[in-house]
Amino acid sequence: MSTRNPGIMIDPARQKKRFDLSRYIHLKKDTAPERIVNGIYFENPVFMLALGMCPTLATTTSVTNAVGMGLSTTAILMLSNLFISLLRRIIPERMRMPSYIVIIASFVTIVDFLMQGFTPAMYESLGVYIPLIVVNCIIMGRAEAYAGKHGPLGSLADGFGMGIGFTGALILVASVRELLGNGTLAGFRVMPASYEPINIFVLAPGAFLVLAVFVAIMNRLHIGAARRDDWDPTGKFVCGDCRSCPRVAGCGGKPAADAAVNLHGGRG
Amino acid sequence: MSDTLSRKENEAKGTQKASSQAFGEEPNPSVIHRTSDEIYVGQKYSDSGKPSGKSETKKKESITKDIFILVAITLVAGCLLGAAHGVTKAPIAQAQADAKAKAQREVMENADHFETLYVLDQTGSAGDMTIPASVEEAVASASLATTTITQVDGAFDADGTLTGYVITADNPDGYGGNVTVMCGISPNADGGVTLEGISFLSLSETAGMGMRAREEWFVNQFSGKTLNEGELLLYTKSGASRNNEIDAISGCTITTSAVTDDVNAALITAWKLSPDQKEDGK
Prior knowledge:
The structure holds two protein chains of two kinds. Chain A is an all-alpha fold. Chain A has helices at 12-17, 32-42, 53-58, 63-86, 96-118, 120-126, 129-132, 137-147, 152-182, 204-220; strands at 184-185, 188-189. Chain A is built from ten helices and two strands. In chain A, a hairpin with a 2-residue loop joins β1 (184-185) and β2 (188-189). In chain A, α5 (96-118) packs across α6 (120-126) and α8 packs antiparallel against α9 (152-182). The relative contact order of chain A is 0.18. Chain B has three domains: 1-33; 47-107; 110-280, no CATH class. In chain B, α6 (133-141) packs antiparallel against α8 (253-280). Chain B starts with a helix and ends with a helix. Chains A and B meet through α5 of A and α1, α3 and α5 of B.
């Protein structure tokens, strides 16, 4: 099913054998459970939408850092999604971006103060990354793609789902990097004492390598970004090529063929 | 380019193309599973993508309204931030003070209590407690120009006698930011000093690399080192053989250098201060 060249057909038999979770999970669109499952699997921000790559590479040197970063981002995602959704009818069309940025930056600063005051140890290790959550594309992307157009409950759940999906992705990458690059997992010595840590995994090149291998494995199992080939957000074959679309993250259209949507149940 | 063409085609033909696809007239694989419900869903999405006509007619009046709304949002955000800052100011100061007190205990275990003697005068209000110029000169002249002494605390025992100093030095040349080290130094009777121990107040290096400075084997190198007057520490990559040498962290020369500079600055401060204190008979 290549939308790049509509003339190419995927053999239906092969298509049937592909792992497709939407065959087994049918959830009503825009409800809390659907949004959460969507954020964790169907539109995982790191592996499907390719958002938030910078924190994925930078803060995954250890699992504790990854969890801290992921949970802080989740908290801010939920808060900003909720408030942007509540204000969506007030914020004018062309003041979208500045308003979103003000709201997101305020919440990040508040979380920054709270962490500095009440969890100083975590604040020490996450340090400069907290203010960088402001420019984390996941938050802007979801505000643009979902919170600005849907109700508060759905947006809150969407923020939660995306945040948990992001945290899961971070933990995945961080486990490999910490295990191979340091011999520990969340501070606990896992590798035997004779293990010589492969230092490159805690440096930037190692981050790219680990992420690349994960993406490759997921594409092979058809649970990764390769699934974007199945998307056609407008349903009219207009945009077509989701695989290389730079705006797929902000595109609010629901993927047609690969979705936790019970199409036969109606339009909701 | 094929995308633009297909968009124009779709707009011209409307729903007819979609429905003809549903019946399989054109071999379009992306619509194999479509039902009429799906065509409706597709149309709904494309409609919501268009801007509503309302905002266009109100274009002239809405600029002021837009600005007003943005100002209102920013105002509310500002008030919330002010409130948050007010609530967390005390806990933040407390957390920082706790960290400092903990570090003081770590570096000078035998002391009974501590008292701040000198602080870095950043706001012009330190007065008598300003770090003596002689100390700053001595630090600068020992090729430690970038390192600054930020605080000197006196360590007193239960009688109130000064038993040593807890000196905080800050070096901005770490790999990932400032390296702030707190050193416990007690003067010896023969004019030398004993470096009791060090503790990191700020260390933001790479995990697994510069952050290894926190590991026991590295920190213990600075514990209980007796140095003669004028003796500074040197880091070496080929195994420390002399008393004033310490092992560098492999691959982290910059971090090691920053830490060593901090400790040396603290040592110089202790030498500068101890004859003065002894002369005053404290």
